[in-house]
């Protein structure tokens, strides 16, 4: 069984729900306190032993690419001004992993990034991540998944319970009774047809079996190519695919203003240098 050393991160989205902030800045580069969303995701992957990170991008993602490159002028200026610790922190960003950039080609949909990077994950398992999904946990959720895979060899997707009235926003899974094995998975079902309130999110372990199915998957809801449709076909054809809940944490999406602000507050409250003053300030707000 191959060790998981590669990850594909889908970062070719427009971020329209966060306009105008995302007009000239990739949504994945929006800050969570003082780190961009995408850096928190990369740190999670690196903690899990991922060495090669493949970003599937588009024409306007250059600030993201620059973020994971060395900025020699900044690093030198920080060193000259005696800010050695900060200089080292900035330098480490470019050295966390091997970064590869691929332009997305193909139909719109969250399955397309996998096909765009398929030649770079030849015959090996890999992690697939959505670039605006954070998982805030004591132990990297990707590490939790990789450790599970190393023990059992199962393909899997992260899941979390959501309010019943919101199931039409997500892929919803149906589990085999008494297990975490997926029996069915439906992209954005109506509330009435949803088999549960267990939503999938952007953390998956996939392999060539899913890529093969995805290549023959027709466009689905909204005329998009959905990774969920490929997983569903794989399961219906007898493949084993697991759902995995976060241990000691939670999934936090950042794709809309409300959830983005919730994520900022959650991360800020974890910081010793911020939580007390922030808590006192929030008490003064007239809600």
Task: Please give a structural write-up.
The protein has 287 residues and is α/β, with parallel strands linked by helices. The chain has one domain (6-270): Alpha-Beta Complex (Spore Coat Polysaccharide Biosynthesis Protein SpsA, Chain A), CATH 3.90.550.10. Helix content is 33%, strand content 24%. It is built from 10 helices and 13 strands. The protein has helices at residues 37-47, 62-67, 72-80, 84-95, 112-116, 141-152, 208-215, 227-236, 257-268, 275-284; strands spanning 6-10, 31-32, 35-36, 52-57, 98-103, 126-130, 133-137, 155-161, 171-175, 182-187, 198-206, 241-245, 249-253. The strands form 4 sheets. A 7-stranded mixed β-sheet has the order 5-4-1-6-11-8-12, sandwiched between helices. Strands 2-3 form a two-stranded antiparallel sheet. Strands 7-13 form a two-stranded antiparallel ribbon. The mean pLDDT is 94.
Descriptive terms for the model:
Spore Coat Polysaccharide Biosynthesis Protein SpsA, Chain A; alpha/beta; two-stranded antiparallel ribbon; single chain; 287 residues; seven-stranded mixed beta sheet
Short synopsis of the structure:
By secondary structure, this protein is an alpha/beta fold.
Topology at a glance:
Blueprint: E1 6-10, E2 31-32, E3 35-36, H1 37-47, E4 52-57, H2 62-67, H3 72-80, H4 84-95, E5 98-103, H5 112-116, E6 126-130, E7 133-137, H6 141-152, E8 155-161, E9 171-175, E10 182-187, E11 198-206, H7 208-215, H8 227-236, E12 241-245, E13 249-253, H9 257-268, H10 275-284
Parallel strand pairs: 1-4, 1-6, 4-5, 8-12
Antiparallel strand pairs: 2-3, 6-11, 7-13, 8-11, 9-10
Helix pairs in contact: 3-4, 7-8
């Amino acid at each position: 069984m191959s060790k998981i050393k590669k990850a594909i991160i889908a970062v070719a989205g427009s971020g329209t729900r966060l306009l105008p902030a995302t007009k000239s800045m990739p949504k994945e580069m929006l800050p969570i306190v003082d780190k961009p969303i995408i850096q928190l995701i990369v740190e999670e992957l690196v903690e899990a032993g991922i060495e090669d990170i493949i970003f599937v991008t588009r024409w306007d993602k250059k600030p993201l690419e620059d973020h994971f490159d060395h900025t020699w002028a900044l690093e030198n200026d920080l060193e000259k001004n005696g800010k050695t610790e900060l200089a080292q922190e900035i330098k480490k960003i470019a050295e966390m992993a091997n970064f590869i950039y691929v332009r997305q080609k193909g139909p719109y949909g969250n399955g397309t990034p996998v096909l765009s990077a398929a030649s770079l994950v030849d015959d090996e398992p890999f992690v697939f991540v959505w670039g605006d999904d954070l998982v805030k946990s004591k132990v990297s959720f990707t590490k939790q998944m990789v450790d599970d895979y190393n023990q059992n060899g199962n393909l899997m997707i992260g899941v979390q319970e959501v309010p019943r009235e919101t199931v039409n926003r997500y892929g919803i899974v149906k589990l085999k009774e008494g297990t975490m094995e997926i029996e069915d998975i439906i992209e954005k079902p109506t509330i009435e047809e949803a088999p549960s309130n267990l939503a999938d999110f952007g953390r998956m372990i996939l392999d060539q079996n899913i890529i093969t199915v995805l290549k023959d998957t027709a466009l689905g809801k909204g005329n998009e190519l959905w990774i969920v449709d490929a997983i569903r076909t794989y399961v219906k054809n007898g493949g084993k695919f697991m759902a995995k809940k976060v241990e000691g944490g939670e999934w936090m999406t950042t794709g809309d203003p409300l959830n983005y602000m919730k994520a900022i507050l959650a991360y800020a409250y974890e910081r010793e240098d911020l939580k007390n003053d922030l808590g006192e300030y929030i008490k003064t707000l007239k809600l």
